[in-house]
Amino acid sequence: MEECKRCLLLESAREDVFASVQEHLQKIPESKKAPEALYRQRLALCLECEHLVSGTCLKCGCYVELRAAFWGQKCPDAKQKKW
Fold it and tell me: Minimal CA–CA distance to 67: which of 2, 3, 9?
């Protein structure tokens, strides 16, 4: 699979990877989950970031769709936090 800069897993990952992340997203307790509007806003900001490659944040190695889903998480870019 070719590297996809500024793409989320939905657009760039193998089906098994995307399915695994979706499964993890569904298991997040509501009390720890970011509201849907905030989640979408975070993903939109990640899509503009130069450190996003094939759904992965190059700053921390996470799948951004998973990190952005948690209420208490922050952008891992210490110099220029996006969210």
Answer: 9
